[in-house]
Amino acid sequence: MAGDKSLIKGKKKYHHGDLRGQLLEAVRHLVEKNGADGFSIAEACRLAGVSTAAPYKHFKDRSEILRDVVFLAMGRLRDGMQAAADAHPPGTVARIAALGQSYIDFARTEPELFRMMFSQTDGHRDDAELAETGDNTFGIVIGVVADHLGVAVEDEEAKLRAYALWCFVHGHSFLMLDDKLHGEKMIDEGQLLLAVGAGMLPQR
């Protein structure tokens, strides 16, 4: 996550074509710093080095800006998960563990964006683009599990086990963010993920 100085330095390079991206990065920074309800568009404009009227050339309102910030965050999560899966051969528990670790690492690195991605934000429930990105992200998990089982991605067993794995890493991520894991120093997260992967999926 870029700090204030990085964003301010970036203003020197600002030109019209960068307005949208610069503003979204400023909002992303402020959301992580203050939470989704703890910043103003005017504050984001100052940080991005644009006028307070500039956002409305690209966005209808605050909700639409936050929606696009969430959309980009979902893309980063998806890309990170895909890269983690691609780094290990199919059929290995290490691949399953790496996939889960990438999900947890995203939650740890961008906690407020992670929370926003799974909140019921007004007007976002029926957003086809957000829904498609979410489906594609979960599709990576299904694909990795299907590869491990040696079945097609349409196989119901692959979907069931993929969902179970997602439930585990998702729940663990929120327990971590909510500071509920008081004994976490006693747990090796990597070993935990390997154990879950080995227990959830048969060895080939």
Word description of this protein:
With 204 residues, the chain is mostly helical. The protein folds into two domains: 13-59, Arc Repressor Mutant, subunit A (Orthogonal Bundle), CATH 1.10.10; 62-198, Tetracycline Repressor, domain 2 (Orthogonal Bundle), CATH 1.10.357.10. It has helices spanning 4-10, 19-34, 41-48, 62-86, 93-109, 111-117, 128-149, 156-177, 189-200. Helix 5 packs antiparallel against helix 7 (128-149). The longest helix is centred in the middle third of the chain and has 25 residues, at 62-86. The protein is elongated. The model is unreliable at 5-16 (pLDDT under 50).
Short description:
With 204 residues, the chain is mainly α.
Taking all Cα atoms into account, the compactness measure Rg is 19 Å
What is the end-to-end distance? 39 Å
What is the CATH architecture assignment of the largest domain?
A: Orthogonal Bundle
Largest sheet: none
Record field, number of beta strands: 0
CATH topology of the largest domain: Tetracycline Repressor, domain 2
**Residues in helices, as a percent range:** 55-70%
Overall pLDDT metric: 86
The H-and-E topology, N to C, reads as: HHHHHHHHH
CATH class of the largest domain: Mainly Alpha
Net shape: elongated
Tell me the number of structural domains: 2
Chain-wise SSE layout:
Elements: H1 4-10, H2 19-34, H3 41-48, H4 62-86, H5 93-109, H6 111-117, H7 128-149, H8 156-177, H9 189-200
Helix pairs in contact: 2-3, 2-4, 4-5, 4-6, 4-7, 5-6, 5-7, 5-8, 5-9, 7-8, 8-9
Features:
204 residues; mainly alpha; Arc Repressor Mutant, subunit A; Tetracycline Repressor, domain 2
